[in-house]
Amino acid sequence: MIAFLTRIFGSVIIGVCVSGFTTLAMALLLTIRNLSGILRGLQHLLRSFLRASFRLYARILNPIRGTVYEFTGVDVVAPLPRTVVTTVLSILLGLVIMLLFSWQIRWRVVAMFAIYGAFVGLAWESILHSDDFQLGVNLE
Predict the structure, then answer these.
(1) Residue 138 above 70 pLDDT?
(2) Are 127 and 104 spatial neighbours (Cβ–Cβ below 8 Å)?
(3) CA gap 43, 131 in Å, rounded
(4) Per 3-state DSSP, what percentage of the chain is helix, strand, and coil (rounded to 5)?
(5) 11 CB-near residues (< 8 Å, 6+ apart)
(6) Which of 35, 43, 53, 122 has its CA 20 to 30 A from that of 16?
(7) pLDDT of 59-100, one tens digit each?
């Protein structure tokens, strides 16, 4: 009787494992099949996030542009100063977010915010024009 129950229990365990593996394999294959759609959605999400950042940084930079130029002679919307300012603003915004959520401040996260700010500063002119701003090659 115990051998019979052991055999049934073993068959159930094997069936559950095979079923789980099959489910994971199907999920992987469907993900690969729909990868272009997933990447298009991620590209759209990143583009909208970049546009929101551009609008935020432009609302900060445009009002102070004349004042900064008057005192320092530096146009903050020129490519190099703009990249530096958007990098600093991105780092400050990231630090404020981390402090608001009581997250531990790590240098990797700060570096990620700095890279993002530099990217926004470098791609400033082409962020709003979606035809000019492409994050990948259309393979279709």
Answers:
(1) no
(2) no
(3) 13
(4) 80, 0, 20
(5) none
(6) 35
(7) 999 999 999 999 999 999 898 999 999 999 999 999 999 999
Measured distance CA(140)–CA(136) in Å, rounded: 12
Tokens 């559950």 -> residue = 16
For the stretch 11-47, pLDDT in tens is 889 999 999 999 999 998 888 888 888 888 998 898 8
Q: What string of DSSP letters covers 2-29? A: HHHHHHHHHHHHHHHHHHHHHHHHHHHH
- Tokens matching residue 12: 């159930």
pLDDT at 140 over 70: no
Tokens of 116: 């993002």
Dist CA 7 CA 19 (whole Å)? 18
Are 86 and 55 spatial neighbours (Cβ–Cβ below 8 Å)?
Answer: no
**Per-residue tokens: 112:** 């990620």
